[in-house]
Amino acid sequence: MNKKVVVLGEVSEGSLRNVSFETIAAAKAVAGDGEIVAVLVGESVKSFADEMIHYGADRVITVEHENLKNYTSDGYTQALSHVIESENPEGLIFAHTALGKDLAPRLASKLETGLISDVTEIEQQGEDVLFTRPIYSGKAFEKKTIKDGTIFATIRPNNIEPLEKDETLTGEIISSDVEIKDLRTIIKDIIRNTTDGVDLSEAKVIIAGGRGVKSQEGFEPLHELADVLGGAVGASRGACDAEYCDYALQIGQTGKVVTPDLYIACGISGAIQHLAGMSNSKTIVAINKDPEANIFNVADYGIVGDLFEVVPLLTEEFKKLKV
Ligand code: FAD
Predict the structure, then answer these.
(1) For residue 5, which of 174, 114, 150, 125 has the smallest C-alpha distance?
(2) What is the pTM (predicted TM-score) of this model?
(3) Per the database record, which ranges form the Electron transfer flavoprotein alpha/beta-subunit N-terminal domain (predicted)?
(4) How far apart are CA 279 and CA 285, in angstroms?
(5) What is the CA radius of gyration of the chain?
(6) Among the listed residues 90, 84, 111, the one whose alpha carbon sits nearest the alpha carbon of residue 34
(7) CA distance 218 to 183
């Protein structure tokens, strides 16, 4: 069956987040030959509409308002509710980002429909769309479907390949006027805590440090390696608890869930709570002094050694490859 599916494009720091294109690819898997409608919300977002079309959206609806400059639950719920009411789609696909995790359950509750969150794969089975998602901290996967009502899912970044970009594609761009009012939260200012430019949840390469890094300064070689590889630096909770780095870098069950192409774990033992946030990474390299460390059980490549010797060597070798 062909369905109309609405996706939400996320604009952050003046550009579209890559996961926005992944939502379009996911929507294609749900829509069949139906229509994909992308929604862009913000103060000034029209300039991103063409890019959503080049990645496969058939139509783009922009909702622009001064009260939508920064994300607020109330503002975005009002904007999206208005679009969903007028479009009446059979499917909704958002990103499983901080924004999506906050917004999707609110809308699902308003729509009185189910929500399948943190999806890593989508497939058709007869008339049903099956969504795969991790359970038990990533130790197992379940497949779920929504039989009645709107099909609503959030997708984990870096798991569903975007469609090929095609700049010859064209589509309709419509602005939707919505009154955004009675906001209970007003963002006055945003003070950023992290220093890294690369967003952890979307990074293709992550160099993560654990308690074995031993100090704030111990993270320096990891930053150097991340710079050479164009990656981001992450951490275990052990490192965050020891105040070697900010909690914004924490990866795991109670931190961020990441799926990079390459995850290099340095001085991390591999506790189950840490594995919950990174074990689906495409290639895992572990550097640890202890050959018995649990991290080696999930690693594709293991280096038994002192991270303070191994990491600078890797940085030097990768630098040579770049020349
Ligand atoms: P450790 O377990 O102390 O390991 C340090 C490792 O460094 C050791 O394996 C050691 O051999 C190695 N090492 C030391 N020096 C060197 C060196 N010079 N070179 C190479 N290797 C070296 N943890 C998370 O990470 N994320 C979470 O989200 C999370 N959530 C939690 C939620 C709950 C409810 C609970 C109870 C725990 C949670 N934890 C989480 C904590 C988790 O159980 C572990 O305590 C934590 O992951 C350990 O961090 P670590 O591996 O850095 O430290």
Answers:
(1) 150
(2) 0.85
(3) 5-195
(4) 11
(5) 21
(6) 90
(7) 44
